[in-house]
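Collaborator request, handled under Task 6.
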Amino acid sequence: MPQQDNANLYAFYQNAFPADRSTTLLTTVTGNTFSYADAERCSAQIANCLLNLGAQIGDRVTVQVEKSPEALCLYLACLRAGLVFHPLNTAYQANELEFFLTNAEPTIVVCDGKGEELLSSLAPKPRVKQVLTLNSDGSGSLMEGAAECSGTLDPVARKGDDLAALLYSSGTTGQPKGIMLTHANLASNTATLVKAWDFTEQDCLLHALPIFHVHGLFVALGCVLGSGASMRWLDRFDTKDVLASLPGCTVMMGVPTYYTRLLATPAFDRASCESVRLFISGSAPLLADTFAEFEQRTGHAILERYGMTETSMNTSNPLQGERRPGTVGMPLPGVDLRVVDGEQQELPPGEPGDLQVRGPNVFPGYWRLPDKTAEDFTADGYFNTGDQAVIDADGYVSIVGRAKDMIISGGLNIYPKEIELLLDDMDGVAECAVIGVPHPDFGESVVAIIVPAASGAPDAESVVSYARRQLANFKVPKQVHFVDELPRNAMGKVQKKLLRERYSAAD
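Structure tokens returned to the collaborator:
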């Protein structure tokens, strides 16, 4: 059993596991079940395997694998062994991966078998001791090695401010920033959400989210593991599978795209949701029209909340009480929010300004970027989110803008500068601007506006192909437009607002 004074996040989860460990943790679409006992045994075997391979407490383990029960156990194994879990989007390409592997300096890399050759060639030696494979069916060298290891391991003693995970968010300068999340950050936020959303052992969560992202990894899994609940485990969002799974579930978490796709399916109705007590939306803005149509169709008011990688969850509409469309609810218990002006003076209710947050959920800083950390925190400990917000007289928060022009497509964050730097290096491109425009399914899609070089412009297809070879697919422009010049203000800054207005209706 875990030590009571051990701040290890796995020990926190373990204290909430059902007394009967044979209780089902998850059931897959194909009907396979995985119990809490299975998770404890499997994660211990993987943890022992990683330690036997030379990983030491505090080392990073970089993971780029498809979603599977074994991938979940790998996450738990890293926590259990005192290692730092570093998940990567499965869509990342070679130039992106090279940066992550160099910057995070992992000791062990785990990837899908199809990516083994690439990751092995990119992994810095001798820092990376081993590149292991884990496939979506649970096969691969990681599980082969784990099968030879002990199925027991006490959670390694960790302090609250020790790192549990390292996630990267692409920076506005084009260079991703490592976001350090501690055991205490994640445990405190999990405990808050379990209570706020009333999770119990009786709940079954429909989990169709990826687990390389905060939403699926820390929010969804945290609420389940932190309450002893169970999951219907989908490897990806598929409308047919979701409709088949909903009758056995009590909670669903998703990005707005999931809900618009359900609404586009005639078979989705009140009967589909008979067992569900709560639908939760996040990672991107939920349109008021979607909220209204969903409530009319199902009788359920979607609960929208707001968080970010650096802070996990900050606000939530109430479980009991009015869920206001267009808002992300009120600050969660223990979380302080304020809206300030350009002079850092707090604004009264109803006035829009820069949103700042403080609390035990807020990360301690960026990986090896002390200057950037100092820049993004105030003297009294508030983190500058980069979002603009309004807090009304009742305390409800509305996000009204994003200072950094971030694009959110299908719940995934895209920073235009990263794409702009890439396209600016392409032959035939003098300069470019990348914007997000409304998309009926993904919320926003990426659009590139290019000023051709004097030597002549590439065609749109070549631009897309060039981007696809070097970027994750969700970052690749869906539209490419050519212009003689980019609109600029008197200070020479590109006026992206004008570009968004101009190209929002373009096909």
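The cover message to the collaborator said: "The first strand starts at residue 24 and ends at 28. The CA atoms of residues 292 and 301 lie 8 Å apart. Please let us know whether this matches your experimental observations."
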